[in-house]
Fold this protein.
Amino acid sequence: MITFDPVQKTLKLDSPNSSYIIGIHEEKYLLNLYYGAYLPDNNLWGNAVRAPFASFSPRNPHNDSFSPDTAPMEYGCNGSGDMRISALSVRNCFGNTTTDVRYVSHRIYAGKPDLFPLPHIYLNSDEEADTLEILTEDIATGAQAVLYYTAFRKLDVITRSVKVVNNSKEPMDIERAFSMNVELPSMDFDLITLYGTWNKERTCEKRRLVHGIQTIASKRGSSSHMHNPFAAFLRHGAGEEQGDAYGFSLIYSGNFEISAECSFQDTTRIIAGINPTDFGWHLEPGESFQTPEAVMVYTDKGLGEMSRIFHRLINNNLIRGRYKTEKRPLHINNWEATHCDFDGEKLFSIAQCARELGIEMLVMDDGWFGKRNDPTTSLGDWYPNPEKFPDGLDNLIKKIHALGMKFGIWFEPEMVSPDSDLFRAHPDWIVHCPNREPSIARSQYVLNMSRADVRDHLFGTMYAFLLENPVDYIKWDFNRNLSDAASALLPPERQKEFFHRYVLGTYDLMDRLTRAFPGILLESCSGGGGRFDGGMLYYSPQIQTSDNTDPIERLTIQFGTSLCYPASAMGSHVSASSRTGYVTKGNVALWGDFGYELDPTELSNTDREIIREQVKQYHQYYHLIQSGDLYRLIDPNDDPYKCAWSFVASDKSEILAAAVIMRENHKTRFVLKLAGLEKNRYYRNEENGEIYSGALLMNAGIDLTNVIRKDGESVLMHFTSV
Ligand code: DGJ
């Protein structure tokens, strides 16, 4: 619900358990008076806007008691007295960047505007949420910012974005335009972020907020392995299942920044949006710029509930298409088994054997096209290698389909190898600067996705290919980051638009392809999980979580990823090369879009039996894992020895719990307490028929001391209510 109180001059956004309150000051400043647990009232002006007695905070010329430097500004502007990190900075026609947008008007309506061409949270019906649009303007320059807020009626979620409009007769340039700005009146929080690298994505890192600015960012052209566009703020004393937790996620796949600044008044400003480094946007009179969308979640029930809210939102309001609800096929991918060294015959033998184990789809990875026998050549030449498929790829697809299996294929559309027909024909299509030899990574250049001609070529090539070769799935890879960022088609004053235009170009190609082939399941990938973000999830319902398939290493990756992203988004594979046996590999990979990445013809009979059992488990638990509520029970970041998690059906009728011993801890007891059950309900352990109350399972727990003990052992426990 969103309400305007003309007496208090407040705009109030309520979700079931949270409130967000904006005040309209008499000088028309917009102030973030409150964000937190639900409030029935709104009398909040208090001291929030009284400037402290110091001459170093510039005052409003007509109201000496107000300083933008110390007030909780709703959308902090640069240069007009607010000395903190700013959300908006516009270089005006006079050449300065002083910006000061103030309230003009607002409107409230049911539903949510479409942010096309940007990926965004959508509504399934207008009944799901209400939107507030606030028009603000800098009367000195004509720069306007339209602030959009959508509050969900049944979920503690507010989405936000900003449209900057040039409402003047002169050009202007945006230098910073963040998607959100939140002000908290204290700094007693830990900031939790997800850092990493290739093979170690989204590892949780927790730090106490300190005075000054703390930032995570990417300027790699993609959201990156190194930082994820997500941050949580956990109040001191709060934990996994209790206390104040705020989560902020940006629906964006390019350069981003999330910063928190703790001021001299011990308040915290949080901003999230496009990274202003190497960003700018030129606005001619009448033009506008739409920022990506940010999602804000608040709960007083800890990090666990914050994650579950994100998971529900992503599953219901971000993921689209056929596979939003349809069961995803259990697949086998040949990459770990063969790398580029395969042919149609080898793939068919993998498929036959996999089919016999119950696997439903074969995914042919990198190496099927051009002359690609290793990663040094042929990206861009998207035609099957005739030496590998002498009877034609379409024939192999027919044979796989005849086995009763689906067929998937790998592409890396945004890239080109120097040794390729495409590069020889269009050397100017790569991302490069004039007079400078561009850097190379993994023997490849990046195609300039901001160019319509490049996108048209890629769409045409892939469209023709897909018409001829009826594939059921595409793995869309992206194996390097951007350097030498520039575009020959942009004038000098627009070169800073390049990075964002690149991302828009990739979204455009994904949009065209998914519209043309709505039946194809798209899985995004970037050297594993280097572009794991809400932007990609709008087009591809699942993303490869990491190239790292070692189940022990996966635990921290999956725990970190789960802070924001649901199991349904996490591509998760069992491979041959890892430290544990197949039982643990499977138990860990079940937490996601389950699949195999190995040569099944080389498996022992014992491992085949284990895999047959896993295939059954995959079907049995699919809905519980994909749409159940995740409870993280023991975090591998907190416990060096063991870790555990569970999925609980939304009606609390069923639980799947898993525990893994990462390192044997001699002689200690291991009692696992479950969470999220109904305490007065009784649950049967499906393995041994024992019946326990929810209260017992949550308070006394299940003793696993003699069940799993040694390095790499794990257990899966299924309980159903009786
Ligand atoms: C990186 C991906 O993460 C791998 O799974 C594989 O597809 C390779 N690229 C292929 O080059």
Q: What stands out?
A: The longest helix spans residues 605-627. The domain at 632-721 is CATH 2.60.40.1180 (Immunoglobulin-like).
